[in-house]
Write a structure and sequence with these properties.
Blueprint (H helix, E strand, L loop, with lengths): L2 H6 L9 H24 L4 H5 L1 H12 L6 H35 L7 H16 L2 H12 L3 H25 L3 H9 L4 H32 L10 H10 L3 H29 L1
C-alpha cells in the first residue's frame, strides 16, 4: 500500500460541507414552518372539504350538455374581441418596450442611471398582475375593451423589454465595432449591426407574449375589461352552468390552438 493510500485511509467522504448541510437544514425548517403557518392562517373549513368531490361532480353534471345556441348569440363576438385585445395589447407593448430594451442593454447604454430606470419599469410592469392593471384602467377608461388593451400592454412591457434587452446584450460585438470603425451613423448600426442578430429573438418573444396575452385577456372581462370574460362573468352570476361549460371549453380550445400555432411559428423562426 502506497503512502498516499495510507493517508486517505480512514477519511470520511461527504457530499456536502458542514456549512452546506446547515444551510439545507435551515431551508427545510423554514419551509416547514411557512407551510404550517399558512395552513393555520388560511382558516380551512373541514366541512367544505368533505363534500368537495361530490360538489365538483355535481357542477360538471350541470355544465353538460353545453348550450350550443349561446355561442353565436354571445360567445363568438366576445371571442373575437378577446383576440383584438390580445393583439393590440401585444403590439402596443412592443412599441413601448423596445426603446426601454435599448436603455437596459449594457452594451448599448453606458449610463447606469438610465439602465436602472429601464429595469425599474420592467420590474414594475411584471410585479402587478394583469387583473390588477385591468381594475386600474377600468377606473380610468371605464368598462370595455380599451381598458383590456392597456392592461395587457402595460403588463407585457416588462416581459418583452427584459427578454429583448437580454438578446441585445448577447449580440456579437464584431459587426457592431466594424460599423463604428467606418463611421456609420447610429441608425445604420442598429439596422445592420444589432437587428440581424436579434431579429429571431424579437419574433420569438413577440409570438410567445401574444400567446400568453390570449390566455390573460380571456379573464379580463371578469373585472369589466372586455373580451370573453364578460360572457363568462354573466353566465356565472346567473348560474347558467351549461353556458359556463361552453365558454370554458371554447377558452381551452383557443388556448391549445394558439399554443400549437405559436410553437410552430417559433420553431420555423429559430
Amino acid at each position: 500500500m502506497s503512502p498516499s493510500d495510507l493517508s486517505l485511509e480512514g477519511r470520511k467522504w461527504e457530499r456536502f460541507t458542514p456549512t452546506e448541510r446547515f444551510a439545507r437544514t435551515a431551508i427545510y425548517l423554514i419551509t416547514a414552518m411557512a407551510v404550517i403557518w399558512s395552513l393555520r392562517t388560511i382558516d380551512i373549513i373541514p366541512e367544505f372539504l368533505y363534500d368537495a368531490p361530490e360538489q365538483t361532480a355535481d357542477l360538471f353534471k350541470r355544465m353538460w350538455p353545453f348550450d350550443w345556441a349561446f355561442y353565436p348569440a354571445a360567445i363568438h363576438s366576445a371571442l373575437i374581441e378577446t383576440f383584438h385585445i390580445a393583439t393590440l395589447g401585444t403590439i402596443l407593448a412592443i412599441v413601448m418596450a423596445l426603446p426601454l430594451s435599448f436603455l437596459a442593454a449594457r452594451n448599448f447604454t453606458k449610463n447606469p442611471i438610465l439602465r436602472w430606470l429601464a429595469q425599474f419599469i420592467f420590474v414594475s410592469s411584471r410585479s402587478v398582475n394583469s387583473l390588477i392593471w385591468a381594475l386600474l384602467f377600468v377606473a380610468v377608461f371605464g368598462p370595455g375593451a380599451l381598458a383590456g388593451v392597456f392592461s395587457i400592454a402595460v403588463r407585457s412591457i416588462g416581459f418583452v423589454g427584459k427578454l429583448f434587452g437580454e438578446a441585445l446584450e448577447e449580440a456579437r460585438p464584431g459587426p457592431i465595432e466594424a460599423l463604428e470603425a467606418t463611421g456609420a451613423p447610429r441608425s445604420m448600426i442598429l439596422a445592420k449591426g444589432y437587428w440581424p442578430q436579434v431579429e429571431p429573438a424579437f419574433w420569438s418573444i413577440a409570438l410567445l407574449r401574444w400567446d400568453i396575452n390570449i390566455r390573460e385577456s380571456a379573464v379580463l372581462g371578469l373585472v369589466g375589461a372586455g373580451g370573453i370574460g364578460v360572457a363568462l362573468d354573466a353566465a356565472l352570476n346567473n348560474l347558467y352552468w351549461d353556458q359556463v361549460g361552453l365558454i370554458l371549453a371554447v377558452i381551452f380550445t383557443v388556448v391549445v390552438i394558439t399554443e400549437i400555432v405559436t410553437s410552430y411559428l417559433r420553431s420555423r423562426i429559430l
